Amino acid sequence: MKLVRGNSVPIGKCWGWAFVFLLFSFTASAQEIKATAKLDSSSIKIGQQVKLQLSVQYKADNGKHIKIQWPEIADTIRKEVEVVGQSKIDTLIPDKNDPFQFVQTKTLYITSFDSGYWAIPPFKFSVNTDTNGIFTEPLLLQVNGMAVDTTIAIKDIKPPYAEDYTWIDWLKDHMYVVYGSLVTLLIIIIVIFLIRYFKKVKPPMVFIETPKIPAHIIAFGKLEVLKSEKLWQEGKLKQYHSLLTDIVREYIENRYKIQALEQTTDEILWSFRNVAIDEESKTKLKRVLVLADLVKFAKEIPLPTENEMSLTNSYDFINGTKREEEKTDSKQDTK
């Protein structure tokens, strides 16, 4: 009796293809967001400081919103490695040809007072709501001790020098008398001041409330000043676009209570997802912010018409949203 084999695939081979598919999916996801940690020197002397640079590279195109949650860094990485200081998080565009590629960086200044080889564990970064996160590679820091010359004999400690006992020394030994006298004198001065103060008749103070200037009036005034300075005509492109976007971001904070001065371009546009403004205003805001990012971070040199258009788009964006503000105020007045 013969057994006839069909064209079935062995189970081991199926598991192999499944492993390859999962590995490929993990690699594709890892290439999209990458976290790195780098020491500017892997070997230091005891007590010497070294820079530890953390960076996260990600791509946010097709309207994708990516929020990176950085790890909480205390004053020690481990008990042998201390954090002396740390910089703020900086967002950069490394390639001007790809404005949707971003890199966030932060620098830690670390030191150690224990000689030896100390492993710096990976740092975890959370992406959006993903609890698994991504990790940096672990690092190794070598801390070298100070060389001691064992050929020199150990010397005895010198005895203390004899000093005369002066009136300054007496004051130091009787500080409670000095402090008590000063406190008593201070109380007497305060009592005399209060008696003279309350004897005077002061006229009632009248407070005049200054009317609040609307956000769009403030923004228009600053735009006019920026226009008169003619910065981009003098080649100061980065300063021009930085001031322009600061005016727009400040207007957004005053108008919509969005923390625009502390957010990136993507975060600002994401914050407008639930704000009732027209699409044309959103588009003009995006053009102003993206061009400014290219100039500041990618060293883009816009055409003169593009510089003028950014100012015009800023006026139009504020105008487009200002009308909604005036309608809201008028409704409140009628009530």
Structure description:
The chain has 335 residues and is of the alpha+beta class. The protein folds into 3 domains: 33-144, Immunoglobulin-like (Sandwich); 173-199; 215-330, no CATH class. The protein has 8 helices and 12 strands. The strands form 3 sheets. Strands 1, 3, 5, 6, 7 and 8 form a 6-stranded antiparallel β-sheet that branches. β7 (90-92) and β8 (101-111) form a beta hairpin. α4 (215-229) packs antiparallel against α5. It is flat. Mean pLDDT is 81; it is low at 1-31 and 325-335.
Mean pLDDT: 81
Quaternary state reads: single chain
Helical content band? 40-55%
Overall structural domain count? 3
Shape, principal axes of CA atoms? flat
Order of helices and strands: HEEEEEEEEEEEEHHHHHHH
Largest sheet: 6 strands, antiparallel
